[in-house]
Amino acid sequence: MSSYAEVRPQQHTPAARYRHSLWLLTRRDLRVRYSTSLLGYFWSILDPLVMAGIYWFVFTQVFQRTVGAEPYIVFLLSALLPWMWFNGAVSDSTRAFLREAKLIRSTRIPRTIWVNRLVLSKGIEFVASLPVLALFAILYGAELSPAIALLPLAILLQAMLTAGIGLIVAPLVVFFRDLERAVKLVLRFLFYASPIIYGTADLPENLHFWAAFNPLSGIFSLYRSAFFPGQLDWFVVGIGAGISAAFLAIGLVVFTRAERAVLKEI
């Protein structure tokens, strides 16, 4: 376990101290995760590759597929890879305070960093997996569209959404331990309720409207537009952006109000 000295930055401004501590903790997470694995990078992309392979086989070899776009493997990966970022960060947020309670109590850095470092480390893993998506795009002849310029916007919106949900979940799990299992069930449901194995364009008109209120719909729409510009839906993106910003604001409020009680509880 890291000591306070390891995460105590030397910069003077609060923002610089925060960024320095965030990077040190994120780097520590990545080092610990991969230091004992010879195939660290491979394992980080194996899960989405296996899932994509299964769905590709089912929907192209077993059943006649009526959703998505060709090449379907690229269509799948362009949503599965960001989903793994979201799923991993939110899942880990349920243990953000419980796993390192002693270190959290002994440091004076802003406690939001214990959630944001999960979002950042999983985000770095996601960015590191993009060459795999590029490789499949090259192999299957998927052409880049000008909408690739929207990739930073997609990453920003996903970081906002993931951090907001993490800031809500992390402190509440301290008081309601069953919430950890509930979050896993919700994430499992959300996987199928999000346009991953299908696109928002495949939904009936009445469901298309309600799908816009799942912020992941707009985020995945942005990612997919890099190869499938027809998947870009600005109505869905706009609503998703608003909901993502709302989650971040609510998360900051919930976290701030619960922080003192959390420190007494852990």
What can be said about the biggest beta sheet? none
Content of β-strand: under 5%
Q: Report the order of strands and helices.
A: HHHHHHHHHHH
Low-confidence stretches: 1-6
Question: Quick check: average pLDDT?
Answer: 87
Describe the structure.
By secondary structure, the chain is an all-alpha fold. The protein has one domain (40-265). The chain has 11 helices and no strands. α4 packs antiparallel against α8 (179-193) and α6 (113-139) packs across α7 (151-175). The longest helix has 32 residues, at 234-265. 39% of the residues are buried. Mean pLDDT is 87; it is low at 1-6.
List the helices and strands and how they pair.
Layout: H1 4-7, H2 14-35, H3 40-62, H4 72-93, H5 101-106, H6 113-139, H7 151-175, H8 179-193, H9 205-211, H10 215-224, H11 234-265
Helix pairs in contact: 2-6, 3-4, 4-6, 4-7, 4-8, 4-10, 6-7, 7-10, 7-11, 10-11
